[in-house]
Amino acid sequence: MASLKELKLRIGSVKSTQKITKAKQMVAAAKLRKAQAAAEAARPYSSRLEAVVASLASKIAGGSGEGASPLLAGTGKDDVHLLVVANSDRGLAGAFNANIVKAARAKADELIAQGKTVRFYLIGRKGRPVINRTFPGMIVAQYDTTGAKEPGYNQAEEVAHELTRMYLDGKFDVAHLFFSRFRSALVQIPTEQQIIPVKIPADADSNAIGATVEYEPSEEAILDDLLPRNITVQIFKALLENNASEQGASMTAMDNATRNAGDLINKLTIQYNRSRQAAITTELVEIISGAEAL
Length: 294
Fold this sequence. Notes:
Blueprint: H1 4-57, H2 70-73, E1 80-86, H3 96-113, E2 117-123, H4 128-134, E3 139-143, H5 153-168, E4 174-182, E5 188-196, H6 219-293
Parallel strand pairs: 1-2, 1-4, 2-3
Antiparallel strand pairs: 4-5
Helix pairs in contact: 1-6, 5-6
GO molecular function, one term: ATP binding
Organism: Sphingobium chlorophenolicum L-1
Family: Belongs to the ATPase gamma chain family.
């Protein structure tokens, strides 16, 4: 049984931890409001841009006609798949990072079982240890986000430019983006999205933009400009969704940790009081026994 001194030290230690988790919970809650607003504001724009790209692409012989951009037409192969895994640089966010990595690992296993070659491009550093251990030698690049306090469009541009360069250099045939879509502080959904080449839905409507229009100079020329921008926007949306998901997961995890610390403090306090009462009772018995002996 622990001594009174040991119990007192443990109670003090848990109380200190509880103060930290409570502070982190409040910080995450404050950041969540801003991150959620940014993620929700980005959704309509990214969805609309995808619809416009799909509408234009459907006019170009299913996206594979003469003059179609490689970002739309593809390489003509389906051999090498690049999994772009967006994680955070910090922990203490529950299963946020682990769930994204789990989704990417499941996709990698599926592709490898089909005889495909799999490579990883990492955004953030938390997923690297698990992926490197599970798929050694398959990480081809990593984008460092440690210097950024929150996602920026310039970060998405840099990642998009690097991915596009790798694609045009023949480093991969298909790129899949993995991130966590924010639904609430309690629910974040690991999501996969094919970003290169642009995936055109089978039911894509060539008039989805709301009217029959003539394009000048041409659909191909417009797509040449829109396709790289669409990749950037989709990556930026993923980073914003991740940021909101991370803050929500962190707030929930720190709230649970704070509650657990409170429960542990109560248990230790009860144990301390019982031990203290037992010690006092023992001292009284010894005093009484000594008096009677006199």
